């Protein structure tokens, strides 16, 4: 199954963790050019509570509409489980927490937890996100309404 | 002290981080078979506020009783310090945060912080947890009661 | 630009992540000797809302004054982006969350989020922090006052 050396696999894992780090920073600093550059054109998103977004452009349009204006966001990702199908295809599961605040009032609107299930591909020497599915364990719509 | 190559040590560290990632996901998704498979039979737990649990089976029985029914949990672990005593024995310290919610009401019952001090052993080619001690810096029993 | 092998770079990255882990643990357990040992003498801090601290000694004096007495703190750092300028100089960006509690009352005083922008140098074979800048995305002065 694994077609590449253990050292190459360690390096690929570091590249994928860096990809993830940039994604979380890009969304929270609203660096949409960076955000777009991390995703393959044919990236598919399927996040609980939302319809499928079948391309990277549709995804980023929706993310910007949801989080771009009047919202301050925090996306933190934890303890990855990255496995390789080949030297150019990988899967990852990350624990996650997100917070969405109204920027003007500072009110916490949404506080969520769950797991990102993702796929990555190395295309032309560069690792990119090819799919993302967010499986929630808990979403709190504040104040204090739980939608587990 | 370290009896194995730097590359082997990097690979062992990745295996231990993967073990930890699976543990946090197993408890929060209530995948008790996975949870059990990550721990050596003779695993010892000593978490602040609880008596020692001298085997993995006793530990998991207690964890299921505390968190398995009617509770939604979040366990996030951060910035590991992993050191090797030999090629088959390691220690780790992880920053941690946990949240325990009542699933039905969504009420936050406990919000805690601290450090996991753990040991790991490679037995028959597989890294397993052999002990875990949770040292708390803060536990908030909600609402707003602090037990530092 | 990178003057050392990919394996050496992986090892250096692990050393820097360990440095960061020790820093977060040192501040939250108030282990000031450990904290000081992680920083170069000429370490420069520039955290939003504070003046520049031009040496490690000035920095630690301020950190102790702010957090050392009567405060329980949590500093968690996430998904590093570490890049090397040479085999002895590196930069890092980390997502971060911090909480500052009044120890006696348990009251949450400050809850913040942002990104640490740091530099590191290997001096005499040991990686040290040489600068730290905290760029905030959000600071909540509790209860419920937002200073984004």
Describe what this molecule looks like in 3D.
Three copies of one chain form a homotrimer. With 148 residues, chain A is α+β, with helices and mostly antiparallel strands. Chain A has a single domain, classed as Nuclear Transport Factor 2, Chain: A. Chain A is built from three helices and six strands. Chain A has helices spanning 6-28, 32-37, 56-67; strands spanning 39-47, 71-84, 89-102, 108-123, 126-141, 145-147. In chain A, strands 1, 2, 3, 4, 5 and 6 form a six-stranded mixed β-sheet that branches. In chain A, strand 4 and strand 5 form a beta hairpin. The radius of gyration of chain A is 16 Å and the shape is globular. Mean pLDDT of chain A is 93; it is low at 144-148. At the A-B interface, helix 1, strand 2, strand 3, strand 5 and strand 6 of A face helix 1 and strand 2 of B.
Describe, in short, the structure shown.
The structure is a homotrimer of 148-residue chains. The first copy, chain A, is built from three helices and six strands.
Name some characteristics of this structure.
homotrimer; 148 residues; alpha+beta; Nuclear Transport Factor 2, Chain: A; six-stranded mixed sheet; 3 helices; disordered C terminus
């Amino acid at each position: 199954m694994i077609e590449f050396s253990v050292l190459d696999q360690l390096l690929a894992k570091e590249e994928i963790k860096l990809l993830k780090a940039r994604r979380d920073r890009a969304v929270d600093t609203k660096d949409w050019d960076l955000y777009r550059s991390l995703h393959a054109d044919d990236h598919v998103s399927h996040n609980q509570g939302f319809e499928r977004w079948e391309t990277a452009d549709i995804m980023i349009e929706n993310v910007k509409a949801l989080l771009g204006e009047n919202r301050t966001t925090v996306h933190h990702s934890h303890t990855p489980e990255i496995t390789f199908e080949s030297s150019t295809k990988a899967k990852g599961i990350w624990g996650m927490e997100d917070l969405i605040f109204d920027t003007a009032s500072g009110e916490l609107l949404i506080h969520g937890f769950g797991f990102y299930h993702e796929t990555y591909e190395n295309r032309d020497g560069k690792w990119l996100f090819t799919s993302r599915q967010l499986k929630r364990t808990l979403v709190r719509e504040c104040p204090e309404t739980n939608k587990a």
